[in-house]
Amino acid sequence: MSHVSTPQHRDPEAPSRRRGGEDRDRSKRRHRGRNVLIALGVLVVALGGTGYWLYSDLNGNIQGVDIDKALGDDRPQKLPTSGQNVLILGSDSRAGANAGLNTGHVSGARSDTALVMHIPEGRTKAVGISIPRDTLVTRPECTKADGTTVASAKRVMFNSIYSQVGPACVVKTVEKMSGIRMDHYMEIDFAGFKGLVDAIGGVTVTTDKDIHDSSSGLDLPAGTHRLDGTQALQFVRTRHGIGDGSDLGRIGLQQQFMLALLSEVKKQDLLGSPTKTYKIADKLTAALTTDSDLASLTKLADFSRSLKGVDPSTMETLMLPVAYDKIDPNRVVPAEPQDSQLWKALRSDSKIPASAKKSPATGG
């Protein structure tokens, strides 16, 4: 992220103007140092000016998945504009460092949190669509990483696709649901999420009601709180302490926390604290998996810079409109016509109708 300045002739008799220019230069350097993309849980810290050993160390942390190779040509066409669509997953693997995070005792890994981030042309705003993990969907035919083919299946719970077939099949499923090509894929696991929040010094949230969830371990009275990594993880995973105890109730908390986290990182003076910058990047990249097009610090930095105009305070967050399943009331299905209206608006970069924002199943 180097910057080359053209030498300017200055009037030696104008020190006040010189100081003003230096202040502006420092402001610009601080701005470049905040080239950061963080999204729910998923989150990218772009570094510049470090030694090769540091770059290599962090670069080697990032895991990549070749989505294009796995899916081939059976995909929606790319947008003819500069808009972007990113599928962000939070993985709830119970293995390794995640085992001690009070995440339950289910074997394997699942996509506990799923968010489609739509960034229209111009990249100055964004909308996030949360897909409830209990949504019953039609899983398309997919190919596993070992080359074996898995047949299409109906009424499959969305969050099971990750463990059954892998991340590429999750991308393909979302593309079939929406008719929208996912330009990028990002995934972060629970342990990485906790470490990231601790590395930035916590995140502030405000709750209107007391939250007491013995399952997640969260005990939070109404009010404003500074959450550490463990509390943040409990916050985004709590479900029994709010609403009807379903996955739908906690989606609002996840979206609230995502915006708070984005705002927190945006205001951090990373350039002024190289130690903190490295600590954040190390925690993040060690837990981050992306599509192969983003699987390096350089590519992540370029993508981050392209989104610098997106302000978290103006980001809209919605839940995919769903209705309770008539056969199994513990599951939900995409609600029509709201579901079709929502995806159509995103495909055309048009305003989302108010009717498409209302979900028959609310989790309240």
Describe the protein's topology.
Layout: H1 15-32, E1 36-39, E2 42-45, H2 52-59, E3 63-65, H3 67-71, E4 84-91, E5 111-119, E6 127-130, E7 136-139, E8 142-143, E9 149-150, E10 153-157, H4 161-164, H5 167-178, E11 184-189, H6 190-199, E12 203-207, E13 211-213, E14 218-220, E15 223-227, H7 229-237, H8 247-266, H9 274-287, E16 288-291, H10 297-306, E17 316-319, E18 322-324, E19 332-334, H11 338-347
Parallel strand pairs: 3-16, 4-11, 6-17
Antiparallel strand pairs: 1-2, 4-5, 5-6, 7-10, 8-9, 11-16, 12-15, 13-14, 18-19
Helix pairs in contact: 6-7, 6-9, 7-8
3D structure, described in words:
With 364 residues, the protein is an alpha+beta fold. It is 33% helix and 22% strand. The longest helix has 20 residues, at 247-266. It is globular, with a radius of gyration of 21 Å. The model is unreliable at 1-18, 27-51 and 94-108 (pLDDT under 50).
